[in-house]
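Sample A.
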Amino acid sequence: MTDRQFSVFTGLALAGALLSLVLLAARFASAISISEPLQLQTSGDEFSSHFAIWRHIQGLPVYTDRFSPPFSFSIYNWLFYDSYGRLTAAVLGVLSLGEPWIPTIGRLISLAAMVVGMVAAHLAFVRAAAAMNQKSQLLCLAFAVLVMAGPLVGFWNVTVRSDLWARTFEAVAVAAFLAEYPRRRWAAVLWAVPFAYFAWAFKQGNVFAAGAIGLFLLVRRDWKSLAMLAILLPALWGATLFFGEPQYVYNVLLRDVPYLGGAGHMFRNLVNFGVKTGPMLFLLAGVLVVVLVDRKRRAALWRRDAFVLGVAGSLCAAVLTLPASSYRGGAENYYFTLSFFMALAAVASLPVMLATNDTARSRVLTAGSAGWATLIVAIGLVLAGTVGVVDVRPQHVANMQKKRCLDGLPRPLFVDSPLLSLPWMTPGNEPWVISYVYEDDRRAGHAFKEGGVGGLIAKGRFNVMALQKSGRGSPAAFDGASLSDYRLVDDAEAARRGCPDFYLFFKKS
């Protein structure tokens, strides 16, 4: 191996990181505007977060019964809604903005999680790699950019979901732990615990940093530190649930939520994960090949705390996220923290892998360079418009056209779109931001108060039903309820009303 090979590896890493930021900037420009509040979707069920934040601002309960009208469902942990709600309310008040700006403000709060996470990841990687010169620090920065702003995260960095700050707080917990361990072992745990709790308090499934640190301390047989972690963090979790309101506990524990998914969905998510994390996968594959035959390097890696912690975190995250990603609503967001721990292990392995100028070193660098090259190609295809999505602005144009239609319709109104049912999209109407598991609950036989939406239709609750056209023709029923008591507006009248995208049903009486 020559210095030239390491320079190629570093150059490809920096190029991949730069392209990641270019792609993120393009997506940011399409999803966020400071001149108008954009109404669009950047991740699945994002509108439920908007609605819950709106309820927090209004002083209404965030955690409600999904089996009671309006059948909405807030599933994330308390700190997500509380922090976004307070910050959004403050910005709305200071700038005298209206409710339509809630999504934009929330997306900017999420983007801030990326910035903080990138700083935390860079600090953790610099310590893990013992990076002293400029090139090695730039390499650590490239991996930090990839983990926090790369294509795996994509539009999630500008979405209003709990995953972003949960991932960031887990990275902060690990960075704080590495900064103190093993010099001040108890201090390392005491610094990590609150940040690990914050991650859980944003999204209750984010316990990967806690699991990683716990497994690491177990491997190192640091019993006192492990006991401290095992007492403090579960105590915080338990106290939160013990003092929480019953509906909060019911929602965050996902009680009675039907499971629908399968191996096919998990495989699709795994493929997407592999395509978007080539730099870590290729580099770690090269490391694995080396350590299988090189006992000295294997022993040297075992002595590196950051590498062991990265492997421990990867194992914990994989065990929990692989089954979870098989759920029908799961996506790449399940792998955010896993990618961080894989990058930590990859970066921590470099001082050992590159210490000796031999064939093994050359193979690791070749594998790492190939990984970054695959990422560059993948991002290039997205930027070229061959695959993926860069621009979501057309959603806003279409949604505002639909809003103009809905604004002219009598209330009470039901529209079969949670996004269009948000309070500022159909003002003067009950916000029917239906739970994302509503159909699953129906199939599972769960009972809804007043018979669900179908029961309300049968009781004549709505003066107008606005059902989006799907290409299957006008429906004769909705949610099991007949629409025979409604008059279907013909296409000509719907067009005159500015509603070509809807089947409009007016109550006959």
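Sample B.
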Amino acid sequence: MRKVKVVSVEDGGYYSSAYASGNTVNVTLQRGQDFASCNSILIWEAEQAEECFDEWVACAQAGEEGYSAMLVEGDVTVMYA
């Protein structure tokens, strides 16, 4: 299996609820030719990249808000958002 690398971590704005608040980040990960992104993460550590990639792809494929993925499937590139 290919290693997951962190492509970008960008400011995602401020989040506030009755349970938590703080600045968030938008993170994009890459494994081979595939990319997965998650927006508005309150707590992020780069060590989480390997365990998050497949979960984020599944969330994007399910159409969950805040997740996207760009996957190379054969000769076709497919976007999920």
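B remarks: The beta strands are 4-16, 21-31, 34-41, 67-73, 76-80. The first strand starts at residue 4 and ends at 16.
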